[in-house]
Amino acid sequence: MGALLAVALAQRLMQAQPQAAPPNLLLWQPTLQGKTAWQQFLRLKAAAQLADGGGKAVLDVARAELAAGRAIDVAGYTVAPALVQGLEAATLSAPPAAIGSPTGQVVWLEVSSQPEPAASPAAASAVPGWQAAGWATRLQAVPGPAFWQTTEIEDAPALVEHTLQALAA
Description:
The protein is an alpha/beta fold. It folds into 2 domains: 18-30 and 95-168, no CATH class; 36-89, no CATH class. The mean pLDDT is 88. It has helices spanning 2-16, 34-49, 55-67, 81-89, 121-132, 157-168; strands at residues 25-28, 72-74, 77-79, 105-112, 136-143. The protein has a 3-stranded parallel beta sheet, sandwiched between helices. A two-stranded antiparallel sheet has the order 2-3. The protein is 46% helix and 15% strand.
């Protein structure tokens, strides 16, 4: 979800200073829709209650609490209704570059556990939109574990290596 926040911040900065160079972005495994990310996060709350047989009821109560303007607890995090509203509206779309302004750079790194790493179809279909909006965009798949989906600590040395290369460039 950090990529959604970074892109929203980039758009605000570009609106506030239209003549300034657009920021460069480095995105790790970005989610394209905040609503999808929120639903996956909310499933953590349901999963914690499945053993008690109350998974669906827990989701209904959580949604009702948020609708009433009250924060809920998910996996040890307090989540405010305003955060959920922002996430549900967020999409990872390119802020338009100002005509005549320098091009911003986007390095989009995806981690793949496949023997021959490949970017997801969703990422591959999103990149042309970024390029059409005036961003120099490079999408690259790197080998590694899906560390954001595990409860264990995972290392992704190829992701670190490619990140350092992108920052040096």
